[in-house]
Design brief:
This protein has about 170 residues and is an alpha+beta fold. The chain has 4 helices and 6 strands; from the N terminus they run E-E-H-H-E-E-H-E-E-H. Helices cover about 25% and strands about 20% of the residues. The protein starts with 11 loop residues before the first strand and ends in a 14-residue tail after the last helix.
Length: about 170
């Protein structure tokens, strides 16, 4: 692939098979800046530190699959998440918590013409459908009922400040 994901598709890491997920940002007038901000947000997210440090997560910027003439020749990128298969579900759940926190903050800054949206899916589209996420449809992290988790709350509330004053992704 010309988008940079060919280097990871089908790789076997030290911990075993790797899965590749793509995070796309849309609905804003500053897609490039928003993507860079989300990428940095994920790089700095305390909830993802352990997975990154142990080699279970790699966050990369790659060329988007959705280039079009209307983009005026501007190169558009997406975020590629390379996750070891053994920890994919838990890492993706934590990534999504961090994405929801960023999305909530970005929506606060959006003008009336912007509808920020973030999607997360397997890079080749044939991954586990239960790992797909979309801020527009509300699909995403779900906890068991009665766990005090996000099962019965909208995405905005689900990633709000916890009782200790931190967001679900560990930020204050």
């Amino acid at each position: 692939m010309a988008d940079g994901s060919e280097a990871v598709t089908g790789e076997r890491g030290a911990a075993g098979d790797q899965l590749v997920f793509r995070v796309e940002v849309s609905g804003t007038h500053r897609r490039r800046e928003d993507l860079a901000a989300l990428h940095q947000w994920l790089e700095d997210a305390p909830i993802l530190t352990e997975a990154r440090d142990e080699g279970g997560l790699d966050v990369r910027l790659v060329d988007s699959r959705r280039q079009s003439p209307s983009m005026g020749g501007e190169l558009v990128q997406d975020i590629l998440l390379v996750v070891t298969a053994e920890v994919a579900r838990s890492v993706i759940e934590n990534v999504w918590r961090a994405v929801l926190s960023w999305h909530r903050n970005r929506r606060r800054l959006a003008n009336s013409e912007e509808l920020p949206r973030v999607t997360l899916d397997a890079d080749e589209g044939d991954g586990d459908p239960t790992l797909r996420r979309d801020t527009e449809t509300g699909s995403g992290v779900r906890d068991e009922p009665d766990s005090g988790g996000t099962a019965h709350r909208p995405a905005d509330e689900a990633d709000g400040a916890d009782g200790d004053g931190t967001d679900a992704d560990g930020r204050g």
